[in-house]
Every structure is written in C-alpha cells, then in structure tokens.
Amino acid sequence: MRCLLLSIALLSLSGCSAVGHWTQAAGGHLGIVRAAKPVDDWLADPATPADLAERLRLSQQMRDFAISHLALPDNNSYRRYADLGRPAAVWNVIAAPEFGFVLKTWCYPIMGCAGYQGWFDLDEAKKHAEALKADGWEAQVQAIPAYSTLGWSRLLGGDPLLNTFIRYAEGELAAMIFHELAHQRVYASDDTGFNEAYASAVELLGARQWLAAKPEALAAFEAGRARRAAFLKLAREGRERLQKVYDGPAEQRRAAKAAVLAELRERAPREAPGYEAWFQRANNANFAILSAYSDLVPAFERLFEREGRDWTKFHAVVERLALLPRHERRLALASPVNEAHTPP
To answer: What pTM value is reported for the model?
Structure first.
C-alpha cells in the first residue's frame, strides 16, 4: 500500500501527460513485487528446478559478499526471486536527434531526469518509440533485464532477483547484482552518465574481486569483457566519426552518416564479433546511451585506485561528488588523478 500511495503522489506531481506512463510503471512494478517470494521459499520447494536452486544459492553468496567486501547496501534487495514469464524486466525507450548524441530526457519527481523511459509492456514501448520517430527523433527500444528502485522498494521486500538474469554466467550474474546495488548506494538525480558509469565500474571491479579465487570463471569473465572492450572501441570510433559528420556541411550529413554506419556494419564481424546485431540496428540513440554507460568508467577506476582500493572510502568520495553541481562533478572526474576538484 505504501508503494501505491507513493505512486499516486508521483502522479499528482508529474502532470497529465505523464499519467499514462506512471500508471503502467506503478502497476508493472507491483506486478513484479507480487510475483517475488523469498529465496529460502524457492529452495524449500521440491518443485524448484535443481539448476535454478543452484543459481539462487550462488546469488545469496554474492549478496553477502556485496555487503562484507564491497560496502554495498545491507538490505532486503536480491533476497527474493520472481519468474516474470518474459525475457525482460522492462523495455526502455531511448531517443536522440538525427544529427546528434544528446539523449532526450524524461524528468520525474524523486529520481530526477534520465535519458530513457521505461515501459513494462513491449507494445507500449514500441508505440512510444514510433511516436518519437514521427516527431523527428531517432528512437530505439531496449530490453532491460533489471532495474533499480534506488532502495524505495525495501518496504515491499526490496528489488528482487529475476528470471531475466539469474542464469547469467557467474561473473555476469555477480556484475548485475553489484551494479544494481551500486545505484542504491549513490545516485545523482541529474546525471545518467555519472550514475551508470559509477555502477558499471562497481560491477567490473566487484566481479573481478568475487572471481579472484575462481580462475576458470574469472578467465571466462575476462574473455567476455575483452570482447565487450573491442565492441566499445569500434562503437566509440564510430561515434567520433559521426560527430565529425554532424559538425560538417549540413547538405552532406545524411549521405556521409549512412556511409559511416555501413562501414561499421561491415567491420563488426571482424572487430566486434558477437555484437553484429547491435551495429545492424544502431542509431544515434544507441551510441548516446552506450556513451553514458561507458565513457566515465576509467575515471571511476582511477578513483578506486587512488582511494587504495578501499570500497568504503571510494563510495564516500563518490557520494560527495554526487552532491556537487553537474559541471563540477565532471571536472573532478576528468582530473587525471581525480584530485583537482574532488570535494574534501
């Protein structure tokens, strides 16, 4: 009931144009909450498949590790599990201009602004993406395996484990749990790039620490991350080349853009194997959201090293950065040693 009351309060603040979105968001999240039950109940149920039971036990070890070793929140998130009967927790709509990489943002009470809008119904997400395209945006719908309520769901059992990611390879399962918990530790209401890069750094560093005594699983994780690094390199090169096109003569932009995208699609099987489908459908919105998740990760990794790989100190500095105005926050992260503008 508290969640329902919160949703009603949000609706009253967000205006009539957002009522449809908030209504489905409240209903969709409550549906997930109702489907979740404690991990211990699943483990006690003889009908629970053995492979699922093994993953649930592993997830609880990871959850304990997140508290004891990574200084992530000690609450009831990821102590429950739900099978949603669908391949995604939510579908995000993202959008950017035809000749630019500035994400369209949607602003909400409490959580602030974000460069995506989540829908619990795929058809609704597609409908809104098409409406954005009709208005001249390049839009895309992305299947999202998990999302964070930033701790607001703790009164209803916390954010649950889901069928959408529970069978990930061990390193990636740990990364997912650590990433979403990081959002509960630090969140800046006006900066998608800061939030996602921080959580992405936590997932990478945390997963490596979790796998340190598991050489085979660590090797598999690093191989996957190496493939992702190759993908990010090609995508970053593509984004930089496209930016030059967009900065050039207006009459040449459309044709030059098409040529760059065609070349990226041709190179992807050789230089970014496994990510061919991404390049086949990529538009400016895809490049922009990818930048938000990845560009600042090295800065957070440097900050972690500067704090002596001490998770408590690292999170504390990030918390202080989140309190700064956005431009000061970015200056601090841009400093080669993360010192020049870091608050005391």
So the answer is: 0.87
